[in-house]
Amino acid sequence: NALIETSIDFSDEDLPKNTMKKFSDLYTNLKKDIEQQLNLSRKAIFVKEGIKIAITGPSNAGKSSLINFLVNQSISIVDSKSGTTRDIIQANLEIDGFLVNIFDTAGITKTKNKIEIEGINRAINLAKSSEIQIRIVDISDQNWKEKLETIPILGLIHIDVLNKTDLMKVKI
User: Fold this and answer.
1) Four-CA torsion 123, 58, 56, 166, nearest 10 degrees
2) Spatial contact of 55 and 103, defined as CB atoms under 8 Å apart
3) What digits encode the pLDDT tens for the residues 39-56?
């Protein structure tokens, strides 16, 4: 700061040769300090608020079964009938000292049902704000590759899960 003020106050005089170098070094160090503080604040947010994981996929892919398995509780309804999850189901757990918020979402599918459409919109918005997005599909479905492609990649990190391999007639 004094270096900058000096250069302004005495602008009609020649500055010492190393003044600009010192200013450049100070600026570089300040920039590094700010970046470090921003990184620390991001980590603090993860510690305080937790890491968001959104489980997304088409209807009946196994999203609810996955969240139930991960939290070792039956918190989400599982049924062979599609559309049992229309709203967001949340569970929290700790993994290696970090709070993890896992979300089961409505199946991403084409529908005209306005309640399902709202659930799908909520699923997409949640995935957009998640650090991790799990895209899950039923691999026993012949169209599983196409269904996987219809699930937009929205999280910072995404993981694809091929589910229901036990139902396949031919193993891959």
Assistant:
1) 160
2) yes
3) 666 666 666 778 899 999
DSSP for 56-82 reads E-STTSSHHHHHHHHHTS--S---SSS
Q: Tell me which H or E stretch contains 162.
A: strand 157-163
Residues 142-169 have a mean pLDDT of 84
Cα distances (angstroms) measured from residue 32 to each of 27, 44, 61, 62 = 9, 18, 45, 45
> Helices (DSSP H) in the chain: which residue ranges?
2-9, 19-49, 63-71, 114-128, 144-150
pLDDT in tens, 85-122: 667 788 888 888 888 899 988 888 788 888 888 888 88
Assess contact for 132 and 156: CB atoms under 8 A.
yes
Q: 0.70 exceeded by the pTM?
A: no
CA 58 to each of CA 4, 35, 83, 90, 106: distance values in angstroms, whole numbers, following the listed order: 59, 39, 10, 18, 8
User: pLDDT for 58-70, tens place per residue?
Assistant: 888 888 888 888 8
